[in-house]
Amino acid sequence: MEARHLRYALTLAEHEHFGRAAEALGIAQPPLSKQIADLEREVGARLFDRTRQGVFPTAAGEAFLTRARRALDEITAAAVDAGRAGRGETGRLRLGFIASALLDPLPLVLRRFGHERPDVRLELHEMATSRSTAALVAGELDVAITLGPPRGPGTEHLVSVPIGHDHLIAVVSTTHPYAGQPSVSVSQLRRQRLIVAPGEDEPTVTAGLRTLLGKDSTALDGATVARDVHTIIGLAASGVGVGLGPSRMLSAPRPGTWFCEVTPRTPLPDLILSFTGRDQSPVLIAFLDTIRNNCPAVGATLDHRLSAL
């Protein structure tokens, strides 16, 4: 029994006449009569009464047609669902990210992806770089946004592209002596109480700060350790000290704070987007398209990496 047999039966029941039903189906009447007879033999029951007034479903026919209608509806829905899944309009995307990515570029990317793909289930996990890298390699994430490139066993199978460049800046309360200054020097920072992100989450940044401030400096020894950049800004606004973090913090101005450049200018590790090269899921491809459209500088690099697979 095929889907066309169900359509033939439903069309015959609708038109109550073999000729009119055949015309509606775009086939000749004899083949339709034969197909209905074959269907009745397969079902093992007479589905239609043939009378001078027309062709009408029997009790068995009514029962069959009820199920046939549902079956065709399911077949149509299945085709629609398959098409949507194939276009990346449904499914699941598991994304791990560091907190500072919520400053830029994640807000715009997630907003647009959610608008374009409202039926894709986004599973978002704030994670330290080391944790998200391990989860991506283990297949527990589809995409990871980390500080610096992923490192460790299995990362050779990942495709990684930079999606953000950063340098070190300082944030202080508007009542702090540095407020109003365009920049602060490293020598000035050595004399201040500092607020930094934890080394566990941002090890490369912490190591870079120690190098910047001097290996013999004790400035970081008494530093206040904040969970993330949002907390750094909040503590600085509270007058706790001088917050140090990525220049992405400029996209999250807060009343009562002042941002200063740090001199000499100190580059920080890039924000890196990574995914498994063998993952060809339509949802991931759709997400990468959103990245291309909203991070124009990323597109060429991403295409180059993908072409090398």
TrEMBL record:
The answer on whether this UniProt entry bears the keyword Cell wall biogenesis/degradation reads no
Read off the Pfam families from this record.
HTH_1, LysR_substrate
HTH lysR-type domain location, by residue?
A: 1-58
Q: Is DNA-binding included in the keywords of this UniProt record?
A: yes
- Supply the alphabetized keyword list: DNA-binding, Transcription, Transcription regulation
Q: Which InterPro entries match?
A: LysR_HTH_N (IPR000847), LysR_subst-bd (IPR005119), WH-like_DNA-bd_sf (IPR036388), WH_DNA-bd_sf (IPR036390)
The portions of this protein that span the membrane are none
| Homology family | Belongs to the LysR transcriptional regulatory family.
Name of the protein in its database record: LysR family transcriptional regulator
Species name for this entry?
Nonomuraea insulae
